[in-house]
């Protein structure tokens, strides 16, 4: 929708509201990395934008997207800012980018902020990142009333969707699904011994989820390269054992999580000397746990494909909640757009009211001198009510019109109004 800013937001500023950026849908990890913006670069962008006369701007940069939301005469102003403070080029940006304008930009921000545009549907981590971004912009005095109101509307939509739909429920990553499985199948998990073998990406994510959700401090890490395990353990104050100790550590474990990323099985029946039940979760592709471990009567084995089915089921359930989430967004977005549309009338109505007050003051002063016993108090009350009724009548007229620029201009000419 190509709507002039003065028509859409009532800001009276030059330019339009734009959303420019790139995300996981068209830009791979390497390209997203070129356009990634750290905290120092964000601050530099905001400072330069202010110096360049851009009235309002917010910067978002996550592992899955980099976006700028702001007012500009032309979107290239924002693209130039982005490219000057990242390792990306305009040419590379144009190949994978999107540019939204005015109401389309507003709709895009609602979709992003409510997790509907996330790589994992219903990921609400983005709303805290947006909130921080708007807070940073406000600190630099780079948020105008339009964007501040928009930010609050998006946050409101996110809260309602989170509270009124099931779009954020369930496990959406294998590491989280593994932890949920453990918690639902192992009683008193906080008291059990958990052994994590492999500290690559999935292993690290699983470790974080274990600590966050199980409150367990009996977690032991083993990795073929001990230094990698120690790096993860140091972050969470966990125990690290040598790879040579894996057999004895398995014997003491209640839960074994395997995420080694090896091409051949690393855990087999030969390593198991068990005297109590052991739940083994294999989070690796290809499988890193040999099926022969099931020959041991104490073993329960869960493979990654079973956990993936849980995440697929979760995403199906979340997708079923989309219509309700979209209805909530539509309701709040409609209210915001109505507010934005009505703002364009405010300068004219305020100027009209000031003009009528000026006429009233002159007339009361004239009548006071002309009429003996003039009741000024009554005159004030009656004239104030008339001014209120007249301005309300004009306001309703403007709000009821579709594209009332001509009406606004006519009122300004008839009453000789000056608006900022």
Automatic annotation (TrEMBL):
Entry's EC annotation: 1.2.1.70
Active-site residues (renumbered): 63 (nucleophile)
Pfam name, any one: Shikimate_DH
SUPFAM superfamilies: Glutamyl tRNA-reductase catalytic, N-terminal domain (SSF69742), Glutamyl tRNA-reductase dimerization domain (SSF69075), NAD(P)-binding Rossmann-fold domains (SSF51735)
Catalysed conversion reaction: (S)-4-amino-5-oxopentanoate + tRNA(Glu) + NADP(+) = L-glutamyl-tRNA(Glu) + NADPH + H(+)
Keyword Translocase: no
GO biological process: protoporphyrinogen IX biosynthetic process from glutamate
Residues engaged in binding substrate: 62-65, 118, 123-125, 129
Annotated pathway: Porphyrin-containing compound metabolism; protoporphyrin-IX biosynthesis; 5-aminolevulinate from L-glutamyl-tRNA(Glu): step 1/2
Domain called Glutamyl-tRNA reductase N-terminal: residue spans: 20-165
Xref: PROSITE patterns: GLUTR
Site feature (Important for activity) residues: 108
Domain annotation Quinate/shikimate 5-dehydrogenase/glutamyl-tRNA reductase: ranges: 185-308
GO MF assignments: glutamyl-tRNA reductase activity; NADP binding
Keyword Cytoplasm: no
Entry-linked HAMAP family: Glu_tRNA_reductase
Job of this protein: Catalyzes the NADPH-dependent reduction of glutamyl-tRNA(Glu) to glutamate 1-semialdehyde (GSA).
Domain writeup: Possesses an unusual extended V-shaped dimeric structure with each monomer consisting of three distinct domains arranged along a curved 'spinal' alpha-helix. The N-terminal catalytic domain specifically recognizes the glutamate moiety of the substrate. The second domain is the NADPH-binding domain, and the third C-terminal domain is responsible for dimerization.
Family to which the UniProt record says this protein belongs: Belongs to the glutamyl-tRNA reductase family.
The protein's assembly and partners: Homodimer.
Protein name per UniProt: Glutamyl-tRNA reductase
Species per Swiss-Prot/TrEMBL record: Aequorivita vitellina
């Amino acid at each position: 929708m190509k709507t002039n800013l003065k028509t859409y937001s009532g800001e009276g500023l030059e330019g339009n509201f734009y959303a420019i950026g790139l995300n996981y849908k068209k830009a791979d990890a390497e390209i997203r990395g070129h356009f990634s913006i750290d905290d120092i670069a964000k601050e530099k962008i905001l400072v330069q934008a202010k110096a360049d006369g851009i009235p309002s701007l917010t910067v978002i940069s996550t592992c899955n997207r980099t976006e700028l939301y702001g007012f500009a005469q032309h979107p290239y102003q924002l693209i130039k800012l982005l490219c000057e403070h990242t390792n990306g080029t305009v040419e590379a940006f144009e190949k994978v980018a999107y540019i939204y304008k005015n109401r389309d930009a507003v709709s895009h921000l609602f979709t992003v902020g409510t997790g509907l545009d996330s790589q994992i549907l219903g990921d609400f981590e983005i709303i805290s990142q947006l909130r921080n971004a708007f807070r940073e912009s406000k600190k630099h005095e780079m948020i105008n009333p339009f964007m501040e109101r928009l930010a609050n509307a998006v946050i409101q939509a996110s809260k309602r969707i989170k509270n009124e739909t099931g779009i954020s429920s369930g496990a959406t990553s294998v590491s989280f699904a593994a932890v949920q499985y453990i918690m639902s199948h192992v009683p008193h998990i906080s008291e059990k011994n958990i052994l994590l073998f492999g500290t690559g990406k999935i292993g690290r994510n699983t470790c974080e989820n274990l600590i966050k959700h199980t409150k367990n401090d009996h977690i032991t890490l083993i990795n073929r390269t001990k230094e990698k395990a120690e790096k993860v353990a140091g972050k969470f104050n966990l125990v690290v054992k040598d790879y040579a100790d894996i057999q004895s550590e398995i014997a003491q474990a209640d839960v074994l999580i395997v995420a080694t990323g090896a091409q051949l099985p690393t855990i087999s029946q030969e390593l198991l000397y068990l005297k109590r039940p052991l739940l083994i979760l294999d989070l690796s592709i290809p499988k890193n746990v040999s099926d022969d471990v099931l020959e041991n009567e104490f073993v329960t084995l869960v493979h990654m494909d079973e956990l993936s089915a849980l995440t697929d089921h979760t995403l199906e359930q979340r997708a079923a909640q989309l219509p309700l989430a979209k209805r909530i967004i539509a309701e709040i977005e409609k209210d915001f757009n109505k507010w934005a549309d009505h703002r364009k009338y405010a300068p004219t109505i305020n100027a009209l009211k000031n003009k009528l007050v000026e006429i009233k003051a002159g007339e009361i002063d004239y009548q006071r001198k002309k009429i003996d016993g003039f009741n000024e108090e009554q005159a004030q009350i009656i004239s104030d009510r008339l001014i209120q009724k007249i301005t309300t009548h004009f306001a309703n007229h403007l709000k009821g019109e579709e594209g009332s620029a001509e009406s606004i201009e006519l009122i300004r000419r008839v009453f000789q109004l000056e608006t900022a």
